[in-house]
Amino acid sequence: MSDTLANDLSPLLISLLKGVLYREDDPPLWQSLTDQQVAVRDYIQVLGLELILDEAEGYAYLRQRQEDGDNDRGSLPRLIPRRQLSYPVSLLLALLRKRLAEFDASSGDARLILSRDQLVELLRLFLPEGTNEARLIDRIDSHISRVVELGFLRRLRGQQEPLYEVRRILKAFIDAQWLNEFDQRLAEYASQLGDGGEAR
Question: Most buried residue, 64, 82, 115, 196, by most Cβ within 10 Å?
């Protein structure tokens, strides 16, 4: 690779290796990515990665390439770790994805903004009620913080009431087929809670 090409690709590759690249966050870097995506794909292929670029939604990220077959010989170690998510965090992500689908179907706006209170109410319905309301809210706040850390929510600054933007990258991680089965899963879970079951 020539020094000129390496210098052009370095900011892109570093940004992508650190996480999701959004068009709105850095328009010049995004333009550079769209112009040089072939070179980026060629470079990261050596690392066992692939570029996922959604120009319509305005985000890009790297994903571990799927290995063909079960043969471990010659397979690369994982560069991008898998994250184990707790049930409440997984549930919140699914609820946000459903809300995003409803928002896209009924609104012409590009950004779904939710208040902290809306997020709390969204999740509270599916968590077992306890005697300590303050502790339940604290737990929900910690789940919201985890989703922010994962990059699926972004806290908006300068607001008196905490507001969060649902990041559109969520659509890449929870697909439409899973979402179609989601209502049935929630109904089953809600009936378990109604019968005295408890979330784990």
Answer: 64
